[in-house]
Write a structure and sequence with these properties.
One of its GO terms (molecular function) is sigma factor activity. One of its GO terms (biological process) is DNA-templated transcription initiation. Belongs to the sigma-70 factor family. ECF subfamily. Keywords: DNA-binding, Sigma factor, Transcription, Transcription regulation. This protein has about 200 residues and is mainly α. It has 2 domains: about 110 residues; about 90 residues, Orthogonal Bundle (Arc Repressor Mutant, subunit A). It is about 70% helix and about 0% strand. It has a two-stranded antiparallel sheet. The radius of gyration is 18 Å and the shape is globular.
């Protein structure tokens, strides 16, 4: 059973909040795994990030209820992203802001997916796991292609294609109108497909 705003605003808020987290746990995990800096693998666990976000949500759910400007899931995703950004700053310090590193935190506080993380998700579609050298080279080629795209286009691809948010959710995350989000996604996916087709032909 899905939850909407009325479910979340019921008398049993605590139980409703727990159910909401349980419903969206895997979606939140995908977000954390996509945006977690590789240097923190083994040091930061996605489940711990989500648990920290749950604790934060229990403390702030009255604030959200008073002014629910986004859907419950987008609100939970925002809290989880904040916790992940805090962990990056704690463990990596100023390196967490280095655009050449695995992640970047923009001026709006949104933790953005890096081209390296997106390339790692895509490389398996073009090579077999047995050839590590070719995979590394192809991954770099895909990363270069993603780097050539606008940062906003990479981000909307991460939201729609990898995190599997719908258009309305992506628009809320990016604070833009749904129609604008749809147009940007269509443009970004066309550019990505064109770049990947070129890579496939060059490596065939």
């Amino acid at each position: 059973m899905s939850l909407d705003h009325s479910d979340f605003h019921s008398d049993s808020d605590q139980a409703g909040l727990g159910e909401l987290f349980a419903q969206h746990r895997e979606r939140l995990r995908r977000m954390v795994q996509l945006r977690l800096d590789r240097r923190l693998n083994g040091r930061v666990d996605a489940s711990d990030v989500i648990q920290d976000a749950y604790v934060e949500a229990t403390q702030r759910h009255a604030e959200y209820q008073a002014k629910p400007e986004v859907s419950p899931f987008v609100w939970l995703r925002f809290l989880t992203s904040q916790k992940l950004a805090q962990l990056h700053r704690f463990h990596l310090g100023v390196q967490a802001r280095d655009a050449g590193r695995e992640v970047s935190i923009d001026c709006g506080g949104r933790l953005e997916a890096s081209s390296a993380a997106l390339a790692a998700k895509l490389v398996g579609r073009f090579s077999s796991p047995s050839n590590a050298a070719n995979r590394a080279e192809l991954r770099q080629q895909i990363q270069d292609a993603l780097n050539a795209m606008e940062e906003f286009d990479r981000e909307i691809l991460a939201l729609r294609h990898f995190e599997q948010l719908d258009n309305a959710e992506a628009a809320q995350v990016l604070s833009i109108e749904p129609q604008a989000a749809y147009k940007r996604y269509v443009r970004a996916i066309r550019r990505l497909k064109s770049a990947l087709n070129d890579l496939e032909q060059s490596n065939s």
